[in-house]
Every structure is written in C-alpha cells, then in structure tokens.
Write a structure and sequence with these properties.
single chain; alpha+beta; Tetrahydropterin Synthase, Chain A; 4-stranded antiparallel sheet; 8 helices; 20% strand
Amino acid sequence: MNTKSTLILVLVAIVGAIVFSSAYFVDEREKAIVFKFGEIVQSDVEPGLHWKIPFINNVQYFDSRVQTMDADPELYLTREKKNLVVDSFVKWKIRDVHQYYTRLKGRKENARSRLSQRVNDSLRQEFGRRTVQEVISGDRKQIMEVVQKVMNEEAATLGIEIIDVRLKRVDLDPAISERVYQRMAAERQRVAKELRAQGEEVAEKIRADADRQREILLANADRDAQIIRGEGDANATAAYAATFGKDHEFYNLYRSLNAYRDSFDSKQDLIIVDPSSAFFKYFKSSEAAATN
C-alpha cells in the first residue's frame, strides 16, 4: 500500500468519525436535550435521526415512558384520630424535558423524592378530613382524584405529568385491628350465647312437654292395666267361685297344693307347724290313702 492509499484511508476514517459523531438518534420512547458547552440549545427534539456539531454539542437522553413510584406504606390519621396504614403508588412521566432537567437535574431519584413528599402531604390532608368509615365505604376514588389533581399542579412546574394515583391497600393500624377483632369476637360470642339460651329454652319446653305426655301415657296405661287386672281378678274369682260351688273338696285340695308348693319352693325353706294342724290335712289323707 502506497502513501496515497494510506492517506485516503485516513481521510475516510476521519470523515466517518466526524459523520458518526455528528449524527444522533432519538427513540420514540425517549426525550433528548442538546447542549452547547453545557448550555441547553434544544429540548424539543423529535424522534428520529438528527445532526449536531461534533465536540461542541452533546446530547443527553431521558426515558419518556410512564414511570411508577411505589411508595412504602405510611400511617395517616383520620378525623377521629385513628391511624390507617395506606399503601399507594403514582404513575408519572416526563412532559417537559427542559423543566425536568432544570428543576430536577434530570434525575429520577430527585423526581421520586419530590413526588413522594407531595403525595404524602396530599394523602395526609385528605385522610385527615374523613372518618375511617368514609375512607373504607367509598371515598377512596374521590381521594385519588383529588390527590392526582393537586399533584399535577405542582408536577407541572417540574416538567412532569401525573398519570394516575392509586391506593393499593388501606388497613387499620395493627393495634386498632386487634381491638376491632376482639370486639367482633365478643359480639359474635354474645350472639352465640343468646342463640344458645334461646335454643335451651325451646329444648326445655320440648322436654317438659315430652315428660308431660309421658306421664299422661303412663297414667293411662296404668289405669287401663288396673282395669284389665280388675276384670281378670273378677273373672278369676268368678271361675274360682264356680269351681268351688261344683266341688268344694277339689277346690280345697288345689289350694292346699299351691300352698305346699309356695311354702317349700327351696331346699332352705323351713316351716314349723303342728303336725295335727289343718295345713297337713291332705298330707295325712294322702298317707292314709297310700296305706290303704
């Protein structure tokens, strides 16, 4: 390679470097600021390919997509001086990159710090105007709209637009929640005791009615049994009387045999009676009959 070719290659390389350093590209998801010796000369750069003066101008890029600032849960006092644990987040993006850079140095951490402070102040003010019941029952949407409007008024001076403000979670302070749960448990226990007492009262009435019906049934059964026994005894007496009237001697024998059986039912039975008494009449008669 001769000297001329080398010179041409050097010139091409220099021109290429100058062209490369003179061109810059802005993505649709970005905003760019063009500086001249550290001073802003252009901030409304459209997306696409652009040119700048090498070594004099420099370009700084900023993300123009929607950003999320997820704040840590904070305690806020309501109108009744009760603490609520609120977890919120803010959606924002750069609206005016010139203001964003001059007011916040173009740093996301600065923007997050300012927004976090402002959202805390706004939420504290809005929660302080409402009761716990109002916050939980339906004022959350109104709170978010008011906070977003107030924040946008200040964010506009920072070159930022607030897209949305959301309350992810609103809970009672753990100590208050515990007391609420205890009151709820006590109320449920009171209702349970009341229901048990009512059930016991109904059960006692049912048991009393059942006992009454049982006594009535037993009394009726005993009455019917007495009637049946009386009728049976009357029939037996009539049968005995009829039998006694037909054969007096056989009736006496039958009664005596029953008396013997009942008196000597067990080997341990002992009776002391005069042998000549009428009790042994049929023993004697049977012995006399056997001897004959």
